[in-house]
Design brief:
By secondary structure, the protein is an alpha/beta fold. It is built from ten helices and 14 strands. The relative contact order is 0.13.
């Protein structure tokens, strides 16, 4: 069990994280927030790359600062930008990483082959990485993070820049891995985690807004997302009054999906909110109200 107690991080007068209290067991936890909300800072604190300003992190009852290398041996970390040597093959590069992690060479050879097969790179294991796609490099990176059989896997924006096919492959890999360990994945892309995350953690105003299942978070917005079809001229008024979640045009008409708490008009159709709706509501409503003022 990984527990964060009153964790805060500031740089001078700028607060990045404030009084974060979280518990992580096995499964996939998604950190969901816009860019700049503190996701990367939190991931780097968990990876011991940044020291928190206050608070502590306990792992199985021990403070990770006191555990030091013992804790680092339990984690795998995939940063936003995977570092690699373009003239190395995946096998060469991963054996090099394994040596840095003090994994015995005899054990390492078999593990590298097994993990490359898991991520679908067996056929290019001995080809130089200089011509690899971003998705292939990400898959090499996740193998590197898994070499030490981590109990905690930290993934920072792992699907940024990947095409839909690579993103789907990556999600399937991560979902499978989360059966056996704690996976903490930061993202601002709701489609990446809507159906695979066991828990979603939404950060806002430097602290935790939600820490719950996607279903429970949706329940807070179950009667405030609507759709309505109208002439484009009428849509202008809706844009001023309501938070628009999406627009779909059909000739002179437009289908608006929007957020409203209160009495619904007769021609509105109530919708089940998805995670993208909630993301827009949580992070855009405040901005919209500021603009109106």
């Amino acid at each position: 069990m990984l527990i964060l107690n009153q964790l805060s991080k500031s740089y001078g007068n700028e607060t990045v994280l404030k009084n974060i209290n979280l518990e992580f067991g096995k499964g996939l936890y998604a950190l969901l927030a816009p860019n700049g909300a503190g996701k990367t800072t939190l991931i780097k604190i968990l990876a011991t790359l940044i020291i928190p300003s206050s608070g502590n992190i306990m792992y199985n009852g021990l403070n990770i600062v006191q555990m030091c290398d013992q804790y680092r041996a339990e984690i795998g970390y995939l940063p936003q930008q995977v570092g690699y040597y373009a003239n190395y093959t995946p096998r060469q590069y991963l054996i090099y990483l394994g040596a840095l992690k003090d994994i015995p060479r005899k054990q390492l050879n078999g593990k590298v082959g097994q993990l490359l097969d898991l991520v679908g790179l067996s056929d290019v294991a001995d080809k130089k990485m200089r011509k690899f796609s971003g998705g292939m490099i990400q898959r090499v990176g996740i193998v590197g993070a898994l070499l030490n059989d981590p109990q905690i896997l930290l993934l920072d924006e792992p699907t940024a820049g990947l095409d839909p096919k690579e993103r789907m492959r990556f999600k399937n890999i991560v979902s499978e891995i989360s059966n056996d360990c704690t996976v903490i994945l930061s993202t601002h892309i709701t489609a990446d985690i809507d159906f695979i995350a066991n828990y979603i953690i939404m950060l806002k105003d430097h602290t935790v807004l939600y820490h719950d299942t996607a279903e429970q978070i949706r329940s807070h917005y179950k009667e405030c997302v609507y759709e309505a079809v109208m002439p484009q001229s009428r849509a202008f008024e809706y844009r001023k009054q309501y938070l628009i979640l999406s627009e779909q045009y059909d000739g002179n008409n437009v289908r608006l999906r929007f957020y409203h708490r209160g009495i619904a008009e007769q021609d509105w159709i109530l919708q089940s909110p998805n995670l993208e709706d909630i993301f827009l509501i949580v992070y855009k409503e405040e901005e919209r109200e500021t603009v109106k003022c």
